[in-house]
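Lab notebook page, bench 4
Experiment: in silico fold of construct C2
Operator: M.H.
Input chain length: 116 residues
Purpose: comparison with the prior construct
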Amino acid sequence: MEFTERPVLVLVTSRPFGKIFAAEGWRAAVGMFGMDHEPQLLFMGDGVYGLMKDQDMMHIRMFKSTFESFDGRICVSKKSIEERNISSDEIFENVEVLGEEDVAKAFTENEIVITF
């Protein structure tokens, strides 16, 4: 069997508090660079809370920094942040805010979707 690089969408829908799922999404996305995949992070639903600037979550900041060093694409659903009354100023810098059409495109452009 031959290894093939694949575009992978890492979908984070879990809150970053009280559970490890959101942090594991970051960890998996960073690890995929080591396997020569092309990961893209997309935060939707309650997962958008993991992008808040004012949180004191060093492990998420560390994964974000590493992910960005590989030129990884980090995106958030505009609809999800609006539903939670979060402005784009309240989330980390260098996060692309995607409308519904671009969110749908992210699902179709990636061969694999892994949800956390």
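Observations: Helices lie at 21-34, 58-69, 78-83, 100-109. The first strand starts at residue 7 and ends at 12.
Next step: discuss at group meeting.
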